[in-house]
Automatic annotation (TrEMBL):
The keyword Oxidoreductase applies. This is FAD-dependent monooxygenase. It holds the Pfam family FAD_binding_3. The keyword Ribonucleoprotein does not apply. Transmembrane segments: none annotated. Residues 2-338 form the FAD-binding domain.
Length: 402
């Protein structure tokens, strides 16, 4: 049986594990975290990704875990409401699209992948070497092993990509913005409500989703590349506090709460662009190969669809990994490119450059319910997302005996 190692047990890795098991492969997942990483923020599942989730029998469960957000409210530095819109429109969602907490999605995917998958937590690949037998893999903690194929599903800062393709700076393109997100007490008593305080070059938000006892604080800002240690949250917190000092609304309180946040996250908003996602017996999936960035709102859907297509191509190629990887790229690349295109335009709306821009956008929001071209304006927001999210029709893959 073909033996496949997946590095990374999140959306892409768990979906791939599920579908590889379905197709009859032996699957091992190595995850750096000590257990399933079930924290995180809210994410969207749209278009073709809904088909993947449905084929996994998870659509009803995913819908049951929907964040059920109701409204987005914009406030000025003194907390006065300056604009409002439905949460659906704020998230660029329509129809069947679902928003779910990332942790809920990973728990569902993990349960679906079942006991047939071998998990190795608290470990990481240290070297990959191709031999006539396959890929010889060494680990930080475990004993070396050989696999037929190795897949990097280890995110934006992929370890497998660095080992098999080279330095991250060749592939990771910073879009000139950063995002920070972490859990805070819900001191505003928000109920399925999203608050946003736009300021020139920086936006601060806070939201609380259905069934949550706490809230998330979110900081978005434009910036040239920043120098900091990615493994030093204390340094990153100091940096963020400095950048947002003097801001109004609830910003000082959120920055105070940041000190105790169990899950502080800060990173650049970046895309991964590569000419090829595969090298020899090693390939990449999800953010590791083609991060569209949080600004696209489509990273999770790309990870779900990408994993489904990769597993299908491996199954159809009957042991010919090179043919499988060629088919994977051929079938997925257009979908990836269409979704990556969404990010820059979305970012322009998420972080407004000047006070005048903020005033204009808030005025438009207040006027929108009364404007005759209202539906056309809404279409202009949702149509590009819908087109990108459905830019692939997923097909059935029939496993050929290897
Ligand atoms: C703040 C934020 C907001 C976002 N909002 C949205 C949104 O609204 N909509 C949307 O669709 N997407 C959103 N995304 C993007 C989405 O989270 C990702 O695109 C999606 O999770 C990609 O999944 P992945 O499995 O490829 O990577 P990840 O979810 O990043 O998972 C990578 C996994 O690899 C593991 N790992 C890392 N290094 C190693 C190693 N050396 N060895 C073993 N394991 C390792 C990690 O622990 C992790 O479990 C957002 C992302 C962020 C950061």
């Amino acid at each position: 049986m073909t033996n496949i190692l997946i590095s990374g047990g999140s959306v892409a890795g768990l979906t791939l594990a599920y579908w590889l098991r379905e197709h009859g492969f032996a699957v091992t997942v190595v995850e750096r975290a000590p257990s399933l990483r079930d924290g995180g923020y809210k994410i969207d599942v749209r278009g073709a990704a809904l088909d993947v989730v449905s084929r996994m029998g998870l659509l009803d469960e995913v819908r049951r875990h929907s964040t059920d957000m109701r409204v987005a409210r914009f406030v000025d530095a003194r907390g006065r409401q300056i604009g409002t819109m439905s949460a659906q429109l704020f998230g660029g969602r329509e129809g069947d699209d679902v928003e779910i907490m990332r942790g809920d999605l990973t728990r569902l995917l993990h349960a679906a992948a079942g006991d047939g998958v071998e998990y190795v937590f608290d470990d990481s690949i240290t070297a990959l070497r191709e031999t006539p037998e396959g890929v010889h893999v060494t680990f930080a903690n475990g004993a070396p092993r050989t696999f037929d194929v190795v897949v990097g599903a280890d995110g934006l800062h992929s370890n497998v990509r660095a080992l098999a393709f080279g330095e991250e700076s060749r592939f990771v393109h910073d879009l000139g913005h950063y995002i920070s997100i972490f859990t805070v007490p819900n001191h505003l008593g928000l109920d399925r409500t999203e608050m946003m305080h736009p300021a020139p070059g920086r936006s601060t938000g806070m939201y609380s989703t259905a069934r949550a006892d706490d809230a998330k604080a979110m900081f978005l800002f434009s910036s040239p590349p920043l120098e900091y240690d990615r493994r030093d949250p204390a340094q990153q917190k100091k940096l963020l506090a400095g950048l947002f000092s003097g801001q109004g609304w609830e910003v000082p309180r959120l920055l105070d709460a940041m000190e105790d946040a169990p899950d502080f996250y800060l990173d650049s908003i970046s895309q991964v662009r590569m000419d090829h996602w595969s090298s020899g017996r090693v390939t990449l999936v999800g953010d590791a190969a083609y991060s569209a960035s949080p600004a696209s709102g489509q990273g999770t859907s790309l990870a779900l669809v990408g994993a489904y297509v990769l597993a299908g191509c491996l199954a159809e190629a009957a042991g010919d990994h090179a043919a499988a990887f060629t088919a994977y790229e051929r079938e997925l690349r257009h979908f990836v490119e269409e979704n990556q295109k969404l990010a820059e335009g979305n970012l322009r709306g998420m972080v407004l450059k000047s006070a005048a821009q903020i005033r204009f956008q808030m005025l438009m929001l207040r006027l929108m319910p009364h404007l005759p071209g209202r539906n056309r304006m809404i279409e202009r927001v949702t149509e590009p997302i819908r087109k990108a999210a459905t830019a692939i029709t997923i097909r059935d893959y029939r496993a050929q005996a290897a």
